[in-house]
Amino acid sequence: MAERSKQWLLVGTGALLGSLSTVALINLLSRWAGKRQVKRLLTGCSVIADRSGGLSVWSHQKKTRNEIFLTRDSPGKLGKEKLFGSCGTRYNGAPDGLVYSNLLKDEVVSEQLTRNIQFFGMESQQKVTESYVVVIGLGGVGSHAASMLLRSGVGRLLLVDFDQVSLSSLNRHAVAMRDDVGIPKALCLQKHFSAIFPECRIEARVQLYDASSEEEILSGQPDFVLDCIDNIDTKVALLAACVRRGLRVLSAMGAGARADPTRIRVADLRESSIDPLSRSVRHRLRKDYGIEGGIPVVFSLEKPKVKLLPFKGLTGQEENPSDYQIVPGFRVRIIPVLGTIPAIFGQVMASYVVTQLAGLCVQTEPVVNLDLDHYRILHQRLLEHEELTYGSAIQVLVDVEEVMYVVKELWHGRSARDHSKKDVGRKMWRSVNELMLVSKHVSLLEDIKSCGQKYTIEWLLKKLLKLLYHALEGSCHKISYRWDKSRPATVNNLIPLKFTEAEAHESTTVDRIKEEEPEFYTMVTSVLKRAEEEFAL
After folding, report:
1. Nearest CA-CA partner of 387 in 501, 455, 457, 466
2. Percentages of the chain per state (helix, strand, coil), in multiples of 5
3. d(CA 100, CA 105)
4. Do the beta carbons of residue 29 and residue 21 sit within 8 Å?
5. Where, if anywhere, are coiled coils annotated (predicted)?
6. Model's pTM, two decimal places?
7. Residue 521 backbone phi and psi in degrees, to 5
C-alpha cells in the first residue's frame, strides 16, 4: 500500500511539474512572437510619430500605413498607452516625457556608463544624460561624433542628413555596413544606435538643412549643435543661424586629403587661417553676416596633401561636374580621404561637446608656432630685465620650459589685457616672436626724484642701460611682468603685457586693480590659479 502511494505521488508531482513547464513555455513563446511581430513591422520601415502621439509605420515594400501603439512596460504587446508623444520626427528610443534625470538610476544604464560616471562624477554625467544635441551631416566626421555622443550617454540626439550610405563611404563611416548601402545615413545611424543605447531618444531626419528647414531642425533649444557639413553655403547658413539663436555650435573644417592626426586642433574660427575651408567660411560669415569669430572649430594645421580628383562621366572622359549635381551647390568631385582623419575629427568633436555639457574645464592647446629657441630668448630677456630693474635675477624662479608654459599654455601668446582677441593666427605668431619677458621702464629723472639715497655710479649706469635697452627693443612689444610685485617671478605670478600696459601696471597695485577692474582681476587670478594647481605650488 505504501509502495502504491509513493507511485501515485511521483505521478502527481510529474504532472504538476509538466503543467508548470508548459505554461512557462507558452508565455515565453508568446513574448518571443510579440517581439518578432514588432521587429518585423519596424524593420525596413520609416518610423514617424504623428500629432496624436501614435507610432506610424510606413512599409517600403507595400507602401501601406499601419499604426501601432506600444506600452512602456511591455513593448512587445498591444496596449492603450502610446510609447511616443512627439510629432513630425522620425525617432525611437526612450519615451517622450521620460524623466532623463532618472535614467542613471537604471542598473543597466548606470553600468553601461560607469566609466563616464567615474570620470565626470554622477552630477556631471547627469548633465550629459539630460542633454539634447543636434548633429547635421552624418558622413565620416558626423557619424563618429554622433556615435561617441551616444556612447557617452547623451539622452537625446537629432541626426540630420539628406544623403545615403554608399560603398565608398564605408572606409570612414562609424557604423555602416554593406547591408546599409543605399539607405539614408540618418536611418542607418538610428538603426545601429538603438542597439547600442536603446534608452537614448534618437530622432532621424532625411533632410537637407537650409533656410526653410532652420526652424524645424534648430527649434527645441538644443544644448549643442554639431556642424559636420562639407558644403560652404549650407555650413555658413547653419553657423549664422546658431549665432543668431544663441546656440552653442562646434564646426568641423576640412578633414579630407590629410594624414597627420597630431596636427588636429580645436580653436576659434579666427585662428584656423591655415585651413582653406575655414578661410572661406570665415570670409563668408564676415561678409554676409558680420560675424568675425566666436565659433569654435575643429581643423588641421596640415596642408592638404592631394587635390580634388578630376570628374569623369560614364564615357570615361572628363566632364562638367555641375551637370551631375543632384542638389545644386553640392560637390560631385571626389576628395581623397584617409578614413582615420575624419574619424578622429568626429572623436575630437564628441570629446569637446561632452566635456562642455558635463561642465569639465578643458584647456585646448593654443595655436602658437614657436620653437624652443624663441623661448630661450624670452627667458634670457627676463633675466636681463630683472637685473636692470631689481639689481639681481635671483627672484626669477622659472626656466625655459616654464617660460614656454606661461607664454603658450596660460596666455596663448597674447597680452592679458587683449580682450579683442584679434591678434590671432599668423599675426599672433609674429607678435609672440616679439614677446619680451621684461618689466616697465621709468624715467631716470623720476627714479632720482623718488629716491632719497646717495646715487652710485653703478646704480646710474644700470638705469641708463635699462633706458637704452627698452629704447632699442621698442614700445610695441609684449612683455611679461610680475602680477604681484612683492612676489618673485614664478609661473603663477607672470602676466604678459604690452610695453605701455606694463608702465600703467607699475604705477598701481593688485588691490587697486581688484577694486577698479574686478573683471580683469578675476580673469587674471583664475589663470594664475590654474598655474598654481598644475604646478602644485
Report:
1. 466
2. 50, 15, 40
3. 10
4. no
5. none
6. 0.63
7. -60, -45
Phi, psi of 74 (to 5 degrees): -135, 85
pLDDT value for 436? 52
pLDDT tens profile 189-214: 999 999 999 999 999 999 999 999 99
φ, ψ of residue 532 in degrees (nearest 5)? -60, -40
278: amino acid identity, one letter: S
Supply 20's cell numbers.
Answer: 508548470
% of the chain with per-residue pLDDT over 70: 63
Average pLDDT across the chain, whole number = 75
Scanning the structure block, which residue is given the C-alpha cell 644700470? 462
Side chain identity, residue 47: V
Which residue in the block uniquely carries the three cell numbers 621702464?
441
Count of other CB atoms within 10 angstroms of residue 58: 15
Amino acid at 4: R
Q: Angle 140-151/340-358 helices, nearest 10 degrees? A: 40
Judged against a pLDDT cut of 80, whether residue 264 lies above it is answered with yes
Number of C-beta neighbours around residue 372 at 10 A? 10
DSSP 59: E
Angle at Cα 445 formed by Cα 442 and Cα 446, nearest 5°? 55
